[in-house]
Amino acid sequence: GNTRTGTTGRGAKAGGSSRTNTGARASTTGKKGTGSGKSTKGDSANGDAEDGKTKRSQYEGPDPDLAAMLERDVLETTPGVRWDDVAGLTEAKRLLEEAVVLPLWMPEYFQGIRRPWKGILMFGPPGTGKTLLAKAVATECGTTFFNVSSATLASKWRGESERMVRCLFDLARAYAPSTIFIDEIDSLCNARGASGEHESSRRVKSELLVQVDGVNNTGTNEDGSRKIVMVLAATNFPWDIDEALRRRLEKRIYIPLPNFESRKELIRINLKTVEVAVDVDIDEVARRTEGYSGDDLTNVCRDASLNGMRRKIAGKTRDEIKNMSKDEISKDPVAMCDFEEALAKVQRSVSQADIEKHEKWFTEFGSA
Ligand code: ADP
User: Fold this and answer.
1) Which strands form 229-235's sheet, in the order they lie side by side?
2) What is the DSSP letter of 86?
3) Binding-site residue set for ATP
4) Mean predicted confidence (pLDDT) in 300-329
5) How far is the CA of 277 from the centre of ligand 1 (A)?
6) Tens of pLDDT, residues 245-301
7) Do the bridges between strand 144-149 and strand 75-76 make them parallel or antiparallel, or are there none, so unpaired?
């Protein structure tokens, strides 16, 4: 999905009422990815990073310029998202743990019939946490994270896309263990527009198939351990993925809209960095947001949490606003009336028809 949202302000007070403070560890607040493809500098995440992650000199392939570009644009050394930052999706987390995390931890066990899946596809409506999960996987298993959108692969270096795919996998091996996350993978299959574009995207797709096929025969590190590269892909349109690619993405995990419990958890995660009034009824907000995606809910919380400031500056001149103290602006905790207003403004973005299409595809092609 493309609808990334940034962090709510860091340094704001932690939840004022104790009921907002359950859930994820405090040290992980405010580190949601920006989706910009740049390294997200979550401060405690840097502390978690192992030394030697940035082994720039490891790449010795034929395309140093391309490699440098990829290192700059798609390499995120510390995405800084933890499992606890992702609300709900317990089953998806379990599946990802088994399919990605464990093979990285015990490569000698995952051999032969137990070999890791070639590729893993996360599908579901937009804004449900697919990108977030991919980042959590990378953080939790301490792998280097390559965050690349298919649109980038298909268009950035016209005519050089295949080289770019090859270089990406070479680079991933050089930085192994690593996770390659390919967002919007469907866009590699349904190239519209000019025929030249179509041709180059066909070539980039065949190269991707070749690379994914070879991903488990990646040679060994100096200490004899296998170099593991995991391919994780995401799509909001799984039905657009053609058979050849679908077959390579052996494990297909459905990322659905959040249920009631997950919505409560999501609201709590979102409100971690602001002060919340005692009248805020999280259960009520969760009840009234059925059908909202995680992203929609984040927007509700962001809108609600900005309301106090809007009230404060209403009717004031620009100079008066400039001269207001920070304390004055942030004095009011987020209250239930702020949620009422936000709920009236922010609607659900995923249609029932879309959900039904995903569920149908899940019964046909999904992994349980
Ligand atoms: P997708 O890749 O599925 O389109 P993202 O992972 O980019 O969606 O999610 C977009 C934003 O929505 C996230 O940055 C986060 O703020 C919020 N969000 C969505 N799902 C969740 C979730 N399960 N837990 C926490 N936040 C979520």
Assistant:
1) 75-76, 144-149, 178-183, 229-235, 119-123, 251-254
2) S
3) 124-131
4) 86
5) 25
6) 999 999 999 999 999 999 999 999 999 999 999 999 999 999 999 999 999 999 999
7) antiparallel
Do the bridges between strand 229-235 and strand 178-183 make them parallel or antiparallel, or are there none, so unpaired? parallel
pLDDT digits (tens, 9 = 90+) for 29-48: 333 333 333 333 333 333 33
C-alpha–C-alpha distance, residues 108 and 214, integer Å: 18
Among residues 324, 332, 256, the alpha carbon closest in space to that of 294 is found at 256
| Ligand 1 contact via 232 beta carbon (within 6 Å) | no
Q: Ligand 1 centroid to 127 CA: how many Å?
A: 5
Indicate the top mutation candidate among 132, 262, 348 to test ligand 1's pocket, ranked by most ligand atoms within 8 A of CB. Answer: 132
Using alpha carbons only, give the angle 250, 251, 253 rounded to the nearest 5 degrees.
145
* pLDDT at res. 223: 63
Write the single-letter amino acid at 2.
N
Q: Taking Cα atoms as reference points, which of 175, 79, 95, 180 lies closest to residue 135?
A: 79
Tell me if the pTM is above 0.90: no
What angle, 0 to 180 degrees and rounded to 10, lies between the N-to-C axes of helices 64-73 and 161-174?
A: 80
Is the Cβ–Cβ distance between 231 and 180 less than 8 Å?
yes
Is the minimum distance from the CB of 79 to ligand 1 under 6 angstroms? no
**Is residue 80 a contact partner of residue 139, using CB atoms and an 8 Å limit?**
yes
Is the pLDDT confidence value at 10 over 60? no
From CA 164, how far away is CA 185, in angstroms rounded? 15
What's the ipTM?
Answer: 0.98
Pairing type for strands 251-254 and 144-149 reads: unpaired
Task: Give the span between the Cα atoms of 119 and 213, in whole angstroms.
Answer: 9
Taking CA atoms, 117 is separated from 121, 170, 245, in Å, by 10, 19, 13
Per-residue model confidence (pLDDT) at position 44: 36
Are 181 and 148 spatial neighbours (Cβ–Cβ below 8 Å)? yes
* pLDDT of 152: 73
Instruction: Give the residue, 226 or 345, on which the prediction is more confident.
Output: 345
Q: How far is the CA of 223 from the centre of ligand 1 (A)?
A: 38
Ligand 1, pocket-test mutation among 268, 298, 348, most atoms within 8 A of CB? 298
